[in-house]
Amino acid sequence: MHQLQASRGAAVRPSRRTCVSPIAVAAVNPASTAKPATSNGTPAVRDAEYSKKVIADEQKYVLQTYARAPVVISHGKGAKMWDVEGKEYIDMAAGIAVNALGHTDAAWYEALVEQAAKLAHTSNLYHTQPQVELAKRLVENSFADKAFFCNTGTEANEAAIKFARKWARVRAGVDPYDGDAVAPYELVSFTSCFHGRTMGALALTYKEQYKTPFFPMMPGHRLAEYNDLESAAACIEKGKTAAVFVEPVQGEGGVTPSTQAFLAGLRKLCDEAGALLVFDEVQCGLGRTGKLWGHQLYGVEPDIMTLAKPLAGGLPIGTVLVKQHVADVMKPGDHGSTFAGNPLVCHVACSVFDIINTPAFLQAVEDKGNRLRAALKRTMSSNPHVKEVRGVGLLVGVQLDIMAGPVTDAARDLGVMAITAGKGDVIRLVPPLVVTDEEIDQCAEILGKAINQVAPK
Ligand SMILES: Cc1ncc(COP(=O)(O)O)c(C=O)c1O
């Protein structure tokens, strides 16, 4: 028997919402380079010098495109994380809305090990069952007829751009392979949106400082005001617009939900102009809002939806879901990716999907979101710099009239990991969807303390 299979039974026989201990991980993986664990199952605690050395080496060897917090994370369990010095944190960032089931979820881990023991990757030269299983789940539980797999959120939007451009050419009745053919190609996106950092998705993304150093951008982009139908109507034009990209709930842009009238109006404008409506649910999709899909809050369906972050619970994956009329224009060779839809990631994603896609799980997300917002209002709103607590489900923002970075730094020192959004003036909380009520209450207490420390009343 394969060594992994032989040791798996002994390592974990999990019930669904339990977590795997690091000791179990080491037992399953004899090649693990992890340091010996302590008797309670956690990795050995290191001193501050060790953290300093890792951070110094990171600066020496890793290209400096991230402004990382000065902590070295060692391990996690549920919505808790520990750094290498043994300090505990409530993880309200979840790897930027990724670790939907928290850290080391037992069912997630079991699916990972089960598939790793069989087959991790073949490329898309062959059929593999886990990819089909995942596509079936996504299609049967959404507006879509077909799924395309990739590896990240930006890649999902990149693919959606290509699908929309080709769809518009076919729909215009031109030969899509004729380089001289003229067809609608413009793409509309909105102020404060974030769609990714590769060249196509970047062109749609709002923040100028992400784009300017890499000019020129992809041509054919138009920007309209978010939640403003008049502005959208001025940009969406028959014969010019191929697709409109919108996040049903903006995440990076400041945790701002669309209005129902806005999304319904976009649907109408797109239909009138013969353009596709694309919902970017990379951050708000798959349970985060308390609905399986964010757009279900609004009763408006897109032609294309992009997904990524939480789908494989921490492994890289991106997905584009499309209606049949979009699928019909794409042919073999039009798009692809070596790693996309590999059996390892897809098998794990099936297990994540099955856990999230139950009425009880989704209801719990909604309840926890309500609890978190109520708790934050209780602990923070007496500080005059707190202007609003908003969001849906467990996509929560606290609008400040000061920069949020110093507050999230202070919260980290006090044991809560939170991130920022908007113009840097929003505290963004996107915890694992399995965060407990106790962790929510603790987080709110700590954020209340943090804001009062940074900006005393
Ligand atoms: C709405 C949205 N779209 C796209 C992306 C890009 O995803 P990735 O970082 O996986 O490329 C993000 C990332 O934060 C996002 O929030």
UniProtKB/TrEMBL annotation:
Q: Which HAMAP family match?
A: ArgD_aminotrans_3
EC number(s): the record gives 2.6.1.11
Q: Name one GO biological process term.
A: L-arginine biosynthetic process
Q: What is this protein called?
A: acetylornithine transaminase
Q: Gene3D superfamilies from the entry? A: Aspartate Aminotransferase, domain 1, Type I PLP-dependent aspartate aminotransferase-like (Major domain)
Check the record and name the InterPro entries matching this protein.
AcOrn/SuccOrn_fam (IPR004636), Aminotrans_3 (IPR005814), Aminotrans_3_PPA_site (IPR049704), Class-III_PLP-dep_AT (IPR050103), PyrdxlP-dep_Trfase (IPR015424), PyrdxlP-dep_Trfase_major (IPR015421), PyrdxlP-dep_Trfase_small (IPR015422)
Q: Which UniProt keywords apply?
A: Amino-acid biosynthesis, Aminotransferase, Pyridoxal phosphate, Transferase
Q: Which organism is it from?
A: Edaphochlamys debaryana
Q: Which PANTHER family match?
A: ACETYLORNITHINE AMINOTRANSFERASE, MITOCHONDRIAL (PTHR11986:SF79), AMINOTRANSFERASE CLASS III (PTHR11986)
